[in-house]
Each structure stands twice: as structure tokens, then as C-alpha cells.
Amino acid sequence: MPSARERVRAELTAEITDAARRQLAEVGAAALSLRAVAREVGMVSSAVYRYFPSRDDLLTRLIIDGYDDLGAAAEAVDDPTAGPADRWLAVCRAVRSWALGHPHEYALLYGSPVPGYQAPKDTVPAASRVGIVLGRILGEAARAGALADGSGERDADLVSDDAVAVLGGEHPALDETVRVRALLAWSALFGTISFELFGHFVGSVEDADRYFDRAMGDLARLIGF
Amino acid sequence: MPSARERVRAELTAEITDAARRQLAEVGAAALSLRAVAREVGMVSSAVYRYFPSRDDLLTRLIIDGYDDLGAAAEAVDDPTAGPADRWLAVCRAVRSWALGHPHEYALLYGSPVPGYQAPKDTVPAASRVGIVLGRILGEAARAGALADGSGERDADLVSDDAVAVLGGEHPALDETVRVRALLAWSALFGTISFELFGHFVGSVEDADRYFDRAMGDLARLIGF
DNA sequence: AAATGGCGAGAGCGGTGCTCTCGTTCGGCT
DNA sequence: AGCCGAACGAGAGCACCGCTCTCGCCATTT
Fold first, then answer.
1. At B72, which helix (H) or strand (E)?
2. What is the predicted pLDDT for the residue at B153?
């Protein structure tokens, strides 16, 4: 059982991360100041260092929480009984609407890496969640016969076994073409969202909502389902 | 004719931007310090403000230069006499290799927007150059009969007229499907490069070089050329 | 009851962006 | 030719930043 000391420590840690998340949502990661966070929770800045060894560690915490929040949103919206095309579009929409609702957090996750490349190890499980959701959808679509009209060549060791496992393990239909297409769909989804959020579509796309649906629908159809 | 004063001013401005570009390449945009730039050119920090009203303006200068450099690289490698598939892949490779050679500049251009969304007006012409190169390739491919096996529906006002102009003006073959596919290809290219550069492919892609060629080749084939 | 260790506060270091005020110097106008 | 204003570089200074260290306080553990 947690001692009283551990409990209040956990509470204060949560209070700090909450304040940091609030500040992140307001001013963005670049302007997130540990001192301002300390002020908001009524501490002096040096006291915060009892809980986070550095500002980057605080940001890493926010990154992991962000990945988990986004991953949960993607998982929540995926209905395994629906068809792959519907599932795909639903998850794409969920990811986009999360991004639009949390622009600074999205930028922290999928924009430029902030510090000198922080420890990715801790973030990997959380970061994988939405990829796993998409991989499951695409993998099942592939096993159902879709996505398989490619050249079918096996370009060994192009996509790692970990990524293949996400698609649902070894299966004759999961040749290299399917693997590449899954990764392509994944990065195209986030490329589209990033372009919209970071302003690269300004002047090109008139109606972002409708363009997104069209683009993701076309993408799914092109890939084969 | 430029007066002597204007000349030395232009020289000093160039010296400052050069030093800033060097520092950007070394430590990245987030850690780029106007004071350090001033030190490098042998000035005191306040003197730099005679040439750039703020740090963000200096960054904006670097952004425009970066877009121009990347755009020039894309234009240089495009051979109008080649086939669309070859041209597409060549430009994709050129963009990627520029990004790999200038990771911090790429992050500045296509990562999270650094300040509170700086003036995009000045950056637009430079930022459009690689999009124009890609648009020209895809537009010519479409007029040659490719990219046209879509539904052909005309979802008016989805893609702006500016973007259509990039594809080569009005043409019966340039229906909404082609427009969406062109934008999709564009954002998929940069989504792929961003994922590679920002580490989202770690654990999924084994051989980045070969994956990129495969992905961009598959993408072109899927889109229709 | 005493010792240990976690904790918050404060001072301080070097760094940042940016502003303001000084002399100086240079160029265009009378 | 001479002057006057504009441009310029330097310096000091402000508020803020991340981070470190030290010092008392207090609770938990022994």
C-alpha cells in the first residue's frame, strides 16, 4: 500500500503535470516554462525539481500522456464488427479531431522533436497505440483479400517484424506490398493532418473537413479496400 | 544604384543570416540564439536588432531561404522530357535527400510552427516552389490520361483554384479526383519524410532508403501513373 | 527519543530576448 | 564646405528562463 508520503507525492506530481498540460495547451511546448508551472501550483521553481529532474522530463511525461490520450481516442472509436473501410475512416476522423482539439499537443507528438532527441524508449508503447489500431484494421482487410493486387514481391527486411506483428502476424497475404501500403497509409494520414494543422494547405484546400474525408476515402480505395 | 551604406548593410545582413543558418544547422531552431549569432559575427546583441527587428524575423528569413533552397533542388532535378513516374520519383528523392542533409532546416519548414504562427505571407511564394514542381508533373500525367480512373465526381470548391492552376490550368481531365490525388501525393511525400526524420519509423522500417523508393513508387502506381 | 531523509524556500549562476540611451560616424542637402 | 540628421555599434539594464546549491523544517522510520 502507498504510504501517506507517497500518496501526497503522487498527488503533487499529478497537479504539476495538469498545470503543465494546461500551459502546453495555451502557449505550446516551446513556450512552456517550468517556472510558470511552478507558479501555477503555488510552488517555487526549485521545488518542482523534486518531482521532475528537468523540463525535458516534464515534456516527456506530457508526450507519453498525449500519445495515450490519442491512442485511447483511436481505440474507442474502432468498431471491430464494421467493415474495414468504415473502420479506417472512423479512426482517421478520430485522430484528426483529436489533433484539431489539441493542436499544441499534436505538434509536440508529431512535429519537430523538441529537445536534443529525448529518450524514446519510454514513449514507444504509448506512441504505438494508434499505429496498432490502424495496423489491425489493415491487417484484417488484407486477410479478407483486399490490399493484395500489388506486385507481391517480397523485399525482405524492408519492414521490420514488429510492424508485421502489428498487422496480425505472419500470413501468406501479408506480403511486402501489404506491409508497405500499411505504412504508407499510416504516414499519409499523419502527413495530411500535419499539413492541415501546420498551415501547408492554406491556399490549396478550401473545405478542410470535406477534403479530409475525400482524401482518406480515396486513399483507402487506392490501397485496396 | 546602391549606396555604399546600403551595400555594407546588405553585406552585414548576409553575414548575420549566414551565421544564423550555421547555428540553425548545428543546434536547431529552438536553440538558435540571437545573442550567439551576434557573438559569431563579432557584434553585440543589440546591434543585430538594427538588421532584424526580432528573433522571429530572423527565423522567418531562414524559413524563406530554406524553402527556396529546397525548391531549387526540386526544380533542378526535374527533367521535363522524362516520363511522369521517373520525374515523380526523382523529385521525391531530391526532396528527401535535401531533408536528410538539412534536418534542422526541414524541421523548421515542415515541423511544428515555431512562434505564434508567424506571417505566412512572405513565405508563400518560396514555400510553393516544390509543390509547383510536383503539381506540374502530376498535371501533365493527368492530361496524358493517367490519374483519371477515379469516380470523376466534381466536388466543387474542395480544392482551390490556385491549386488547380498549379496542375496546369483547367482541363477536362483535371476533375476533382485528380486534384485530391495530387494533394494526397504531396502530403504523403512529406508525411513519409517527416516520419522518417522525426523517428516515427524507428522499429517499423528497416532500410529507410529502400522503403522510401518502394513507398513513393507504390504511391505513384496507386495514384495512376 | 533520536536520526534520517524528503521537502519547500531562497539565493544565485549563466543564459535568453528585447529596450533604451548614449557617443560616433557617415551621407545627403543647403 | 559645412552642417544636420539618420544610421549605427556599444553598453547597461529589465524580466524571464533552466538549473544548482544550501538551508531549515518536519514527518517517518529506527
1. helix B55-77
2. 61
Structure confidence by residue, pLDDT tens digits, B89-127: 999 999 999 999 999 999 999 999 876 556 568 899 999
Query: Does one domain contain both A47 and A121?
Result: no
CA of B108 vs C1' of D19, distance in Å?
27
The residue with cell 499505429 is A131
- Torsions phi, psi for A160 (to 5 deg): -70, 160
In angstroms, the CA A112 to CA A133 distance is 24
Average pLDDT over residues B151-166: 72
pLDDT over threshold 80, residue A214 = yes
A152 touches chain B (CB under 8 A): no
Residue B57 lies in a domain: no
Counted domains in chain A: 2
Closest-CA distance, B184 to chain A, in angstroms, reads: 6
- Across the interface, of B107, B120, B158, the residue whose CB is closest to A214 is B158
The model's confidence at residue B159, banded by pLDDT at 50, 70 and 90, is: confident
DSSP string, A79-147: -TTS-HHHHHHHHHHHHHHHHHHSHHHHHHHHSS--SSS---GGGHHHHHHHHHHHHHHHHHHHHTTTT
- Give chain B positions within 8 Å (CB) of A202: 120
Residue B153 domain boundaries: 62-223
Judgement on whether residues A179 and A76 belong to the same structural domain of the protein: yes
Q: Is there a single domain that holds both residue A73 and residue A96?
A: yes
Residue at which a domain ends, from A33, A52, A71: A52
Specify the DSSP element, H or E, that contains B183.
helix B176-197
Residue B205, classed as helix, strand or coil, is: strand
